[in-house]
Design brief:
This protein has four helices and 15 strands. The chain has about 290 residues and is mainly β. The longest helix is centred in the first third of the chain and has 14 residues.
């Protein structure tokens, strides 16, 4: 059962959540007057390291880390973002070590180059790329000890990988936008409807000593179901801080057997302080510079 719960989390974070909904292709168009006026690249910040616990009821299933690297020498808009998922030690029959390494444009964090490393048995590497100029979507699969294979197709729908989806959600948090987004699920593209209410809520997380923190909720709603995943319907909620950083604080994924809760346990972000958390007004205006 624990292995099943942790597998759900991996599917949600490393493959993306999707649904068969109508959508406007490439890029997704929010139902607001000007998409560029509400998206912010401010959540991108070299040196940011966020660590999360993953729990089902009172059982700790594992840890998730989000780490942002520095741009290549000479600067530019492309930033490395890495997601790491590790199962908790001592859980029977579970040994999960997964890393997703993405190269993301701060202004448009859809798929460019994404390397997914499965470092437990069976080991394998999946390398996803998207050629923007020619609209070519490719997957190179390298199973441990076996010859590599490559698939490629022309694809006008440029999706988000897991890291890109998370950074996009942060960039629109609190904006009031609603739209449908294509997401990467293995070598297929699924879709989810995302909403970014402007309302401010408060919640407590271990990283901030369980003090009340103002947050914007992000709602992801999908219509697909997977009976093998405990009744998961593809819906989850994410809460981000209301300041320019839009740091993800908590996520809840509902399943038939309860819910998976992901909570921020530690936060490192250069130039950032907890003092900004109390400012829930004008936060999106303050984000205009972004992408440092």
């Amino acid at each position: 059962m624990k292995a099943l719960m942790f597998g759900i989390v991996l599917n949600a974070l490393l493959l993306g959540l999707g649904a068969s909904l109508p959508y406007t292709p490439n890029p997704p168009v929010p139902t607001v007057s000007s998409p560029s006026a509400v998206y912010s690249s401010a959540p991108f910040r070299a040196g940011e390291v966020l660590r999360y616990s993953v729990k089902w009821s009172f059982v700790r299933l594992g840890t998730i880390e989000l780490r942002q690297g520095a741009p290549a020498q000479g600067g530019g808009p492309i930033r490395p973002v890495r997601l790491t998922v590790l199962s908790a030690s001592g859980l029977p029959f579970i040994d999960v070590r997964l890393r997703e390494e993405s190269q993301l444009d701060v202004a448009d964090p859809r798929l460019r180059d994404c390397l997914v490393r499965r470092e437990h048995d069976p080991r394998e590497v999946k390398h996803y790329t998207y050629d923007i100029l020619n609209e070519l979507f490719a997957l190179e699969l390298r199973p441990d000890g076996k010859p590599a294979t490559r698939q490629q197709r022309r694809e006008a729908q440029r999706p988000h990988d897991a890291a890109g989806l998370l950074m996009m959600l942060r960039g629109y948090a609190g904006s009031g936008a609603t739209f449908t987004v294509p997401t990467l699920m293995d070598f297929t593209i699924q879709r989810s409807r995302v909403s970014f209410p402007r309302a401010v809520e408060t919640l407590e997380v271990p990283a901030f000593d369980d003090e009340e923190v103002p947050a914007h909720r992000v709602e992801v709603r999908s219509s697909w179901t997977d009976e093998s995943a405990g009744g998961m319907g593809g819906n989850f909620d994410l809460w981000c801080t209301t300041d320019a950083a839009a740091i993800p604080l908590r996520a809840e994924i509902e399943i038939a057997l309860g819910s998976i809760v992901i909570e921020l346990e530690s936060c490192t972000r250069p130039g950032w302080s907890r003092g900004t958390l109390g400012d829930a007004t004008g936060s999106r205006a303050a984000q205009a510079g972004g992408g440092q």
